[in-house]
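Dear support,

I submitted the protein below through the web form. The confirmation email said the job was done, but the results page showed an empty box. After a refresh the structure appeared. I'm attaching both so you can tell me whether what I see now is the final result or a partial one.
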Amino acid sequence: MSLKDKIINRSKIYIKSSGLSFLVFIGLIIYLLPGCSKEPIREVTQNPPVDTSKVTYNNGVFVVNEGNFNWINASVTYIDNKSGSVYQDIFNQANNRGLGDVAQSMKVLGSKGFIIVNNNDRIEVVSLKDFRSIKSITGFNSPRYIEFIDSSKAYVTNMRKNISVVNLKTMTIEKDISTPYWTESLLHYGQYMFVTCIGSFNESSANRKAQVYVVDTRTDKIIDSIMMGKEPVSITVDRKNKIWVICTGGYDNYEAPTLKRIDPALMIVEKTFTFPVQQGVPSKLCMNPTRDTLYFINGGVFQMSANATELPAQALIPANGHLFYGLDVNPQNGLVYVSDAVNYVQSGYVFKCSQSSGQILNTYLAGRIPGSFCFTSSSKK
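What the results page shows now:
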């Protein structure tokens, strides 16, 4: 078996185990093959270390750094809006222990942060006052994302055939909603939760049923499903209450990637935008605060009006040698945050950018594989 074949084989195992996107697969090959690694990016000058016991995490941006699968080096970076200071590995500093293995995502509810640690099958619940752990919720099956229904209940997607229903009062899993395949992104819409279903990597894309489940949050029952393109990974909703889903086309490039628009009143796909196959693998779909403009990664960062009749031809933020991996828009001020995973081994970077011009306003050093962002309710600057 050639070096290339060994890398591909190991990368497939890595993807199956950790749930990282096809982009990771490509990135590992590019980094590991001789003569293909990128030149290291010059490190950004950081502020002197600050006593994090005096930091209150209520006006800034959390960067969730996945870390490497099985290396137990996941972390959270905090960017303070007021001072501009950057604080690394804040969970470890607050709790005198590491966060764990593969930090997938984070979401805030009131004064608490919920950090999903995928390969440890748990959610770390922290206080936003000091980032100390309040509770470790366990019993998940490779959890991915959390969405709150109200102050007492949340849904958590899992790679292994169920959606967990979490009681936020007791901080325990109350029950499971059985699903045939891996579930991924969630969108709370009225009394329903729309949940993307990836399918199973044990089957080829041709045999995997990629769909969006519609769950009635009052009964915790799946009441409908909407067929999708292969591997639907991101979901969001616009100001006209149209739901948007990005589909990668399958980890084995079974079909062209697509962006689909759903009419939730009729539970049907009403519009499909098809990406050129050679353009890349789109991911990380998100919306601006006024919910009339979409953003996504497809090599570079693209911006698209919710009223557009075709996909954008030019990137708002060209990749220019960066490996863009995480993307989100600050819901208070519309600033775009995109991360560079570099080579999945070095510390990554975060770029804060203008929503209109794409100009990079600030660059921050993050942890290893910065994959997602979480904004505090007062992140206005």
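Response: this is the final, complete result; the empty box was a page-load delay. Confidence is low (pLDDT under 50) at residues 1-49.
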